[in-house]
Amino acid sequence: MRPLRILTDTTCDLSPEYTGKYGITLIPGHITVPGRGDIPAFVEWKEYDRDSFYADLKKRPEAYSTAPPNIDEFAAALEKLVSEGSDVIAITISAGISGSYGFLCKAAEAVREAHPEAKIGCVDSRRFGPCIGLIAIYAAKMAQDGRGFDETLEWVETNKNRFRQSGWLDDLSFVAKKGRITHAKAFFGTLAGVKPIGEFDENGLTTVLVKATGAKAAYELMIGYIEKTIEDPQDQTVFIAQSCRRRQAEEYKRLIEERIKPKAVVINDVYPACGINIGPGLMAAYYVGSPISKGLEAEKKIFEELSKKN
What is the structure's pLDDT at 191? Predict the structure, then answer.
């Protein structure tokens, strides 16, 4: 059996610590930054200070942009791995918000023609950020355990809809400037400490399901939601993503450890490949739970019940 490698791009927000530990191959996308133009996206704060980066991004969001790896870049990464004798499962950011998956599929088609002996699986994660990273880690663990291409690919495709988020994006004015929400909704979403709490839908887009007034109420709703949707927390590492919300993420981590009791809780930065389109203000937990329902009907009911209690 050929060895199996997992490939993903920098929208996964996995630092070298995790890609190295799990043997995940990372291909950089592109970011455009003032004064430097198009540069490879990164998952380490070496040349840029995190807080300064986000401060400038918030002031002039129109000066920053992102782009996925192109077809040739995906093809080169796949070619290298299959030339080394490996099969590959490549996982991309949701096709609903990026052209990455389409580029990957075209690249894979070309590499398969040159290497008919290799198996290449293309996965639209229908997720973004550390949630992609979690999916990649689960797949990489299966590969490390000796699971083959077919078994691992089937598991990922069957279970990717179980990867959830529970968190807020409390600065909607930024995503409004990026054209991803109306200014009116952004205005009402940032009034009086309102915390919009959202979840992925079955298509990989995020829908706001409830708006909590104040951090205390938001934490209670988010923890309650995790309690009702997570499965086997004792066997899981929960990722918390944050963009300029480290203090809030630390409190969330404490509450998750106290109430949910997972195997571990890890706080991740949101790096530029996702951060340029999210901006400051994200603080969300990512974990594996029950499958997300069609139209988020079950999730809406959960928040309705939790809101009544609070």
Answer: 53
Residues 133 and 194 in one domain: no
pLDDT band at 96 (very low <50, low <70, confident <90, very high): confident
Q: How confident is the model at residue 1 (pLDDT cuts 50, 70, 90)?
A: confident
The pLDDT of residue 185: 53
Of the chain, the end-to-end C-alpha distance in Å amounts to 54
Closest CA to 211 of 191, 226, 230, 228: 191
CATH number of the domain bearing residue 193: 3.30.1180.10
Mean pLDDT taken over the chain: 92
Of 161, 178, 196, the domain-final residue? 161
Residues 6+ apart with CB under 8 A from 14: 8, 24, 26, 43, 130, 133, 136, 137, 268
- The span from the CA of 135 to the CA of 237, in Å, is 12
- Structural contact between residues 50 and 42, judged by C-beta atoms closer than 8 angstroms: no
Are residues 16 and 157 located together in one domain of the fold? Answer: yes
Residues 214 and 299 in one domain: yes
- The domain in which residue 17 lies consists of 4-161
Same domain, 109 and 60: yes
